[in-house]
Specification:
The complex is a heterodimer. By secondary structure, chain A is α+β, with helices and mostly antiparallel strands. In chain A, 29% of the residues lie in helices and 12% in strands. The longest helix of chain A is centred in the C-terminal third of the chain and has 21 residues. Chain B has four helices and 32 strands. In chain B, strand 16 and strand 17 form a beta hairpin. Classes of the chains: A alpha+beta, B mainly beta.
């Protein structure tokens, strides 16, 4: 559905103020354009159209999809060949642990990933250990074990397909998937 | 897309891809390129085969045989355009001419009709002695002509080197194109020269670690369809498959025992990644390693008595060996801070592995008696080495021009080739056993 140009808003506001009785405010947001040429009242030669305001609030499956929410950060990055959690990511895990602690019915999968260096199956094991490391912290922070599954993809699903450190650093990660 | 939508899509993609697994799907072929090392090779002339009047064979047998022999790194077939004469029978051969052209050996042959198929006969000669070394006749269907040509190449190779040839074997490999949620991953099987590729599994989720059964009739692999890792064993003839492992955590690194009855694998269901052996008949699973470090990438010794595997129990990934029934493990890789994904040569005397040298990942062959590692590759992200069933070559994955391709190197030195697709990535080659 197209958005209204913003310069139309003052006009719409005035029209709505004067025509509430005509049901302007209750026009459904996804009303079709069919009434665009409807004549309102009996003003001679005047063509007026009305439309409801489209909701500008996007709908999310959960707060983790909302960029303004702290749960939006769902990735924990790792050093090369390491499954040790770096201090700067503790807050990310705590935030999710607190949310999951309050939502016993919500489940997550911790997806472990590595960069492309090293053998594929060893990397599968390394991704598993990264996911396990995150799982342990979240359980220590009060998440019920049955709320967390782990899945290692090793190097099979890189976030960035390049062959260098700028890509690799983005690929060594655990993603908290709701 | 939400996770559930993605899950639905990937399930759908797998279902679509797997509909009718009974018939493998023809796929784009691998282009093969010889990339060096034929200077020391033996000169041989494979004369275009004579064809009965009115017969049109679907394959140029002599050119397939020439290409097969060139790929071994041990032979240098004469280009057809340099031949002064193209005899198709013994009477028409003048050995002095071939001797003057510097040929050690000569092959001539004939193709005749046989029902709806063909009868292909060939003779191999020693040019200096003017003697026939071997002569055979093979019956072939029309669609089997390339395979017949590969078998002829193998018979010539065996006669001249004393070692069984591998032209009539196959390779399995993984391809991928696209990325993220729109990627397509396939598991394919082609002839050893990359020809006649067929897709045996296709998915929008990763496929990994193809492993041949010793009879060449089944392939085990890891698939992430359904968004979880699982090990399947698929019968090549029918396309039917069996789910053999789908535990929480890793289900990886399948490896058939030499008798084909057991499958070694890596599972992390009990904590850290460890090696397990599944009896394929009784479905009994036994754990063979139990260590808090990573244990993975099991491979059987040719006699089935030992398993070698990768472990970082000593700090860095190294190769260890243990009795297949369980017991103490001893480290067998000696140099370097990263040695992984080892597999035995068919004679059990050496292993191929991935080894890190100055930050670059190369393919090395470790001689188990002399404890020396020799490098076979020169890339920086080389991986997944797999021995040809006669032990003469190792096929592996490498990056060329920014893309994943396959490469094969002669173990003795002096023969290299590259196999790539016109587009997309190719990886994880597994060389088949000898086909029955």
């Amino acid at each position: 559905m197209p958005r209204f140009p913003s310069k139309l808003f003052p006009l719409l506001a005035i029209l709505c103020a004067g025509l509430t009785a005509a049901g302007c405010a209750s026009t459904p947001p996804d009303a079709p354009q069919a009434n665009a040429n409807a004549t309102i009242g009996s003003l001679p030669g005047s063509q007026t159209s009305t439309a409801g305001l489209e909701s500008t609030r996007p709908t999310y499956a959960g707060p983790w999809e909302d960029p303004t929410n702290a749960l939006y950060k769902r990735t924990i990055y790792f050093d090369y060949d390491s499954s040790e959690i770096k201090p700067e990511y503790v807050v990310v895990m705590r935030t999710h642990a607190a949310y999951l602690g309050s939502k016993a019915g919500t489940k997550v999968t911790l997806e472990g990933h590595t960069d492309e260096r090293g053998t594929r199956e060893f990397n599968l094991a390394l991704g598993d250990q990264r996911a396990e490391a995150v799982r342990r912290v979240m359980i220590a922070d009060g998440v019920r074990p049955e709320q967390i599954a782990t899945l290692s993809y090793g190097e099979e699903r890189p976030a960035d397909p390049g062959h260098g450190e700028p890509s690799w650093r983005l690929n060594r990660r655990v993603v908290i998937q709701y | 897309m939400s996770r559930h939508q993605r899950l639905l899509f990937s399930l759908l993609a797998v279902v679509l891809a797997l509909t009718g697994t009974g018939t493998a799907i023809a796929a784009p072929r691998l282009n093969i390129e010889i990339t060096g090392g034929i200077e020391a090779a033996q000169p041989i002339a494979i004369v275009p085969f004579g064809v009965s009047e009115g017969l049109i064979p679907p394959v140029d047998v002599a050119s397939v045989v020439s290409a097969d022999l060139a790929r071994t790194g041990k032979f240098k077939p004469m280009p057809t355009r340099d031949m002064l004469d193209m005899p198709t029978s013994r009477e028409a051969v003048d050995f002095r001419d071939w001797s003057l052209l510097g040929m050690n050996n000569l092959v001539i042959g004939q193709i005749e009709p046989d029902g709806t198929g063909f009868r292909v006969s060939f003779s191999l000669y020693d040019v200096f002695r003017g003697e026939e070394l071997t002569s055979e006749t093979l019956v072939s269907s029309k669609s089997g002509m390339r395979h017949t040509a590969h078998r002829i190449a193998d018979l010539i190779y065996e006669k001249l080197t004393g070692q069984r040839g591998v032209a009539a074997t196959r390779i399995a490999y993984v391809t991928s194109s696209g990325s993220g949620d729109s990627q397509t991953v396939t598991l394919r099987v082609s002839d050893s020269d990359g020809d006649q590729p067929q897709t045996i599994v296709s998915s929008s989720e990763p496929i990994m670690s193809p492993a041949w059964s010793p009879d060449g009739r089944r392939i085990a692999y890891v698939s992430f369809e359904n968004r979880r890792a699982a090990i399947y064993v698929q019968e090549l003839g029918s396309g039917r498959r069996d789910l053999v492992a789908s535990y929480p955590g890793i289900n990886g690194s399948p490896a058939f025992s030499p008798d084909g009855r057991r499958l070694a694998m890596t599972l992390s269901k009990d904590g850290s990644p460890d090696i397990y052996v599944l009896d394929l008949t009784s479905r009994q699973l036994s754990r063979v390693t139990d260590h808090f470090a990573i244990d993975t990438e099991p491979s059987w010794s040719p006699d089935g008595q030992h398993l070698i595997f990768t472990s970082n129990r000593g700090g860095s990934p190294q190769i260890y060996r243990m009795p297949a029934s369980g017991g103490p493990a001893e480290r067998i890789s000696v140099e370097g801070d990263y040695n992984a994904r080892a597999s035995y040569a068919p004679d059990g005397r050496s292993i191929a592995m991935v080894t890190r040298i100055n930050g670059e990942f190369r393919i090395g062959v470790l001689d188990l008696e002399r404890r020396l590692t020799r490098l076979l590759s020169s890339g920086n992200l080389d991986e997944s080495p797999s021995f040809a069933p006669n032990g003469s070559m190792v096929i592996y994955a490498t990056i060329h021009g920014g893309r994943g391709v396959l490469a094969a190197a002669s173990v003795a030195g002096g023969g290299n080739q590259r196999l790539s697709q016109d587009s997309g990535q190719v990886r994880e080659p597994a060389w088949s056993p000898f086909m029955q």
